[in-house]
Amino acid sequence: MTDFIHPALLFILGALPIPFLSGSVRKAYLLLIPALAILVVLAMEPGSYGEARFIGQEILIAKVDKLSIVFATVFTIMALIGMVYALHLTDAGQHVAAFVYVGSALGVVFAGDYLTLYLFWEGMAFASAYLVFAQRGGPAIRAGFRYLMVHITGGVVLLGGIISHGLATGSLLFGPIAGASPTGNGGRRLPDPRRLHPQRGRAAAQCLADRCLSGGDRHRGGVHERVYHQDRRLCAGAGVSGD
Question: How far is CA 190 from CA 14, 87, 95, 177, 179, in A?
C-alpha cells in the first residue's frame, strides 16, 4: 500500500480534529477533506491493496476496480455537497459522525473481503444512528433506537452468514459462492456476487428501517410524506416492497 491512500482513512482519521476546530477554520477543514478525497479517488489505479492476515484469515482492505472508483467518486462528491449544506451546524459531533459515515461507506465500496465489509458496514450503522440521536428529544430518541435495533439485527444476520461462509470455504475473500452453479436457477445465469454492489443491500436495509419507522413519528405529512415517497423509490430499486 505504499502508493495507495485509502479515502476512508481521510474521513475517519480526518474526523478526529473536528471538535478542536471552530469558526472559519472548521468550515474550511470540512470542505478540504472531501475535496482531497475526490482527488485521491480520481488518481486511483485498479488493483488490490492492503493484503494482510487477521485471526487466521486473509483479508484485503481495498480491491479497486473501475466500478468501485465510479461509486467512490459519487460518494465523495456527495460528501462535499453535504458538507456545504451542513456548514451552518455548530455541533461538532454531527460533523464527526458524518465523516465516519462517509469513510465507512467508502470502506464498504473498496472492501475485498467479508470481514472488512462487515466492520465498515457497522461503522455506517452506528454513525447514522448517532445523527438521529443528535436531534435530541423524545421522538428522536425513540426513532434512533428503532433504527439502531433494525440495523443491529441486520448486522447479526450478516455476521452469521459471513461466519457460515468462512467455515464452508475456509476464506473470507470475495469470490464465487461455493456450490452455486453459474447456469443454475432454471437455466438462467446467476449474477456473479463480485459484481453485486453492497449499496443494493444497504438500500434494502434502509427500506426495512423506514417501514419500521412508518408507524411512529417519521411520516406525518409535509416533508415527511415526500421522504416516504423517496423511500418507496429506494425500495423499488432494491427489489423490496416499500408498501
Answer: 40, 45, 41, 11, 12
Flag whether the pTM goes above 0.85. Answer: no
- Which residue type does 141 have? I
Cell numbers 470481514 correspond to what residue? Answer: 115
Q: Determine which helix (DSSP H) or strand (DSSP E) holds 135, and give its type and residue range.
A: none
Q: What is the dihedral of CA 67, 69, 70, 72, to 10 degrees?
A: 120
* CA distances, 242 to each of 135, 203, 210, 228 (Å): 25, 11, 8, 9
HSE (CB half, 13 Å, CA atoms) of 55?
7
Q: What is the pLDDT of residues 198-243, one digit of tens each?
A: 444 454 445 544 544 444 444 444 433 333 444 444 444 444 444 4
Contacts of 225 (CB under 8 A, 6+ apart): 219
